[in-house]
Amino acid sequence: MRDHIRPALTMLLILTILTGLVYPLTVTGLAHLFFPDQANGSLIVRDGMVVGSRLIGQYFDKPEYFWGRPSASSPFPYRAAASGGSNLGPTNPAFIAAVQARVDALRAAHPGNEMPIPVDLVTASGSGLDPHMSPAAALYQVKRVAGARGLDESTVGALVARHTEGRQFGLLGEPRVNVFQLNVALDEGR
Length: 190
Known about the structure:
By secondary structure, the chain is mostly helical. The chain folds into two domains: 40 residues; 147 residues, no CATH class. Helices cover 47% and strands 8% of the residues. The chain is built from six helices and five strands. The strands form two sheets. A three-stranded antiparallel sheet has the order 3-5-4. It has a two-stranded antiparallel ribbon with strand order 1-2. Helix 4 runs antiparallel to helix 5. The longest helix has 33 residues. The N and C termini lie far apart (72 Å).
């Protein structure tokens, strides 16, 4: 029995050091060397302070800001610890009621806007933390944001166009707008 325990413990110690220390430290070091921004969480710094990340959505409800997708995290929106979808199907009465309430709230916040409401403004993403919205969702809100800030609609529309990201590698995904970065740009006047 002793002949088997010693090699097993030796292998346990060697593999623990390799997979528990050497490998993670090597990967972390390489990530910081080659991808420092991403390795540190893709943080957005404003006035010397970290105000958020490009990868996690944030909750905006003031009229002078663009509003992102609804968050499925509960009880607080965009709480990473509660990440996940609502798991309600499209025919579920609770889902239909939630979407209708969001549609009604958007119509009330955008009186006179006859554009169709983009689906991503009334449905949460799978994680509930999506930082992006479609360009159509951003354009739907231009009039409200411009009016609340006292800006020309064309100026705000041009800002949306500047912050619209294309498909990844030109073919993957859909064009999108990072809500947080767009709102930071609005605050900075660029």
